[in-house]
Amino acid sequence: MSFGRSGWLVLLLGTGFFGRPVAAQEAVRNRDPDAARLVTEDIPRFWSALDGATLLDGADRFQHLYLESGTPGLKAFLRGRIVNARALAGTVAARPRYYAAIRGTTLAVDTAGAVKARIRASFHRLADLYSEAVFPDVYFVIGRLNSGGTAGEVGLIIGAEMYARDLGTPTDELTPWEKAVVTSSDVLPSIVAHELIHFQQPEAKGSLSLLDQALREGSADFLGQLISGGIINRIQHQYGDAHEAALWDEFRKVMHGRDVSGWMYQGDQSVDRPPDLGYYIGYRITEAYYDRAEDKRAAIAEIITMRDADRFLAASGYDGGHERSGAGKGPR
Description:
Blueprint: H1 25-29, E1 38-39, H2 42-50, H3 58-67, H4 72-82, H5 85-94, H6 96-101, H7 103-111, H8 114-129, E2 138-141, E3 149-152, E4 155-159, H9 176-181, H10 188-200, H11 210-228, H12 234-254, H13 277-292, H14 296-305, H15 309-316
Parallel strand pairs: 1-2, 2-4
Antiparallel strand pairs: 3-4
C-alpha cells in the first residue's frame, strides 16, 4: 500500500498491495505459518525514545533511539507514512494525551500474547484452506496516526497506534478523521489477515480499473474475515447492506473506468455516505462467487489468483444482491 490517509477503518491499510516485490523472496519461500515472525520490538523502542523527550530534543531522540535502530519493518514504514523523525515528533507533541494513554495497550501486543495467538491462528487457517499460501513476517510499529498497515518487501507492517483505543482513551486532540478510524486492539488480527491475503495475490500489471481494484480489496476483506473471524469495514457494510441494489446500479456504470475517486481511497472526502464503498462491492462479488462454488477450497484459490475481473464477476452471478435468496451474509 502506498498512500497515506485513505479513509475510515477500511483504508487504515494505506493502499492496496499490488504484488510481491522480488526482494520479498525469503517470505515467498516460507510456507510454514509458525515460521513467520511476529516482530514487536519497535513498540518498546518507541516508548523508550519518548520517555524524557522535550519539544527541543524530541526529533533527535526519535531519530537516534527509534528510527535508526529500528527493524526493517519500521524503516520500510518511513516511506510515505512516518516520513522522518521531525514529522513523528510533531504528531506526538500535538497529541500527548492520546499517545500517553495507548502505551499499555500497544505494549500488550507483545506481553499479553492474545493478539499474537489470534494472528497465528488465522495463519494456520489460511494454510489449511490454501495450499500455496506463503507467510511473511509481521512488524508492529508506532507511527503518526496516518496508516494502519501495509504489505511490502519485508513483509506485513502494522501501525499499532491505530489499534489501541479503549473506552477511556482521550480523543479530544485527534482530528475528525483520526477519531473515526482509531479503534481497539481486537481488530488487529483482522487487519493482519487482510494484509496477508494481499500478500498472496499475484502482481497486478498495467492500469487497473475500478472493478479490478474493488475486487482486490474486497476479496482481501472477504478472505481475511474467513480466516480471522473479524470484519474490518462495519460502517461500509451497514450502509451497503441497506443500499446494495442502488450502489450496484451506480457502480456498474463506471466500473471499467480508471477513476476510483468516488469509490476507493477517499479519506474524509466523502460527504453524503461512508467512503470506500468499492470495498463493499468487491466483498459482495467475492462472496457471491464463493457461495456459488461447490468446491470451496478451489474457490479460495481462484479468488486469490484471480486476474480477469470481468470473467470473475460473470462467474459470480452477482447482481446487486438479487442473486441471494435469504442466505446469510458473510464468510462461512
